[in-house]
Predict the structure.
Amino acid sequence: QVQLVESGGGLVQAGGSLRLSCAVSGRTINNYAMAWFRQAPGKARECVATISWDGGSTHYADADFVRGRFTIARDNAKNTVYLQMNSLEPEDTAVYYCALDGRLRRIGSPYLHEYNYWGQGTQVTVSS
């Protein structure tokens, strides 16, 4: 059974940083694209970043709001994907979810329906 477990969320002041981790069990992530999504209260879940199966391609779904502040990375040896978030703003407050695309060797997609497996989410709260 594939499980994704996010960690690293919490309460941080505006301008601060957090690094989210997504540990995967039940499947090695080597051949699978992964992504981070987020969902703020009353809003739809949206893509934050994707990373291809080999780590060679990353995509940030909305350059305007990410503005170089977020970085997605993967460590296949640890079966873990990360999201480094810097210069956090109150608008970044949301539950952050990790997702895995169960199809082999994909480049990554910003669309929710492309992902077969999801974590339970980790809360990020940014105070002003």
About this structure: The helical segments are 63-66.
